[in-house]
Amino acid sequence: MASVFDVAEYILYKLKTTTAMKLEKLCYYCQAWSLAWDDKPLFEEDFQAWANGPVCPELFDRHRGKFVLSEGDIKGSGYKFAPEELETMDAVLDYYGNKEPHWISELTHQERPWREARGFCAPGERCTNVISKESMQDYYGGLQS
Questions:
Q1: Domain ranges, residue 98
Q2: What total number of domains does the chain contain?
Q3: Which has fewest Cβ within 10 Å: 32, 62, 71, 113?
Q4: Cα Dmax for the chain
Q5: Would you tell me the crossing angle of helices 101-110 and 20-33 to the nearest 10 degrees?
């Protein structure tokens, strides 16, 4: 199975450069749509319901302190993606890749997985609640019906 770092490396390879916030959200949507379309996670790592939307803490630790990331800034394991995994990631990049980071972040705030994981956390408040893969699969899988 790929890791979040393999997915981030692929995204940076395709986009060449993006903000750290946008990279986090694109990895989130790659995971979400893999769960919905392929019925399996793309990677094992989880996302937490941070104030600015879903964030994978392990990925955040790799890019901490950087606002903009470029191809080569995140190294994966050399994982070879299956054709359906590439198709999912490319579809995510085709749809979300040209959107502004703030727009993508706001979109996640409107969607049930992030809202439910936030629970009773106040806007802007620190939150480390995990957004479950089950809630992601249920929500995004329901959008394609």
A1: 4-143
A2: 1
A3: 71
A4: 41
A5: 40
